[in-house]
Amino acid sequence: MALLWQRRAGGNHYEVRSHGASVRLYSNGVFHSQWNPRDPLKGSLWELLLLPAFFLPGRQVRSVLLLGVGGGALIRLLQQFVGPEKIVGVDLDATHLRIARKYFGVQGRSWCVPMPGISLPISWPPEEKIPLT
């Protein structure tokens, strides 16, 4: 496996590696994302996010908001199999966004919005009742 790029930033160690036609992102030594344009479906957990789109009539999915871009493999899958007009990808890590553009080929009608330093308070069950009507 060839090392294409590596960087240490913000306490994280990033590596982009290639293996054949595949590009892989590792963050802190952990396999994170993979994209292979010749063989896009690899049986990964993330591909399950595509399933609902296949049960809709063609071209009904016009826009997608993706929270967590990583290497951009899911954006590439959405572009190839669903073809929405707009994909907005948000990631807390601006390095992931640069990697998605440069090494995973995220381009065209996809936008990635860095949100450094943002922490989202999540609690369950919610402290306040939210009206659903």
If you had to describe this structure to a student in words, what would you say it looks like?
The protein has 133 residues and is an alpha/beta fold. The chain has three helices and seven strands; from the N terminus they run E-E-E-E-H-E-H-E-H-E. The protein has helices spanning 51-54, 73-81, 94-102; strands spanning 2-9, 12-19, 22-27, 30-35, 63-67, 86-91, 110-114. The strands form two sheets. Strands 1-2-3-4 form a four-stranded antiparallel β-sheet, with no helix packed on it. The longest helix has 9 residues, at 73-81. The chain is globular, with a radius of gyration of 16 Å. The model is unreliable at 121-126 and 129-133 (pLDDT under 50).
Net shape: globular
How many strands, which pairing sense, and closed or not: the largest β-sheet?
4 strands, antiparallel
Distance between the termini: 54 Å
Task: Provide the gyration radius in Å.
Answer: 16 Å
Low-confidence stretches: 121-126, 129-133
Count of distinct strands: 7
Structure annotation, total helices:
3
Q: Quote the average pLDDT.
A: 83
Q: What key phrases describe this protein's structure?
A:
133 residues; alpha/beta; 4-stranded antiparallel sheet; 3-stranded parallel sheet; 7 strands
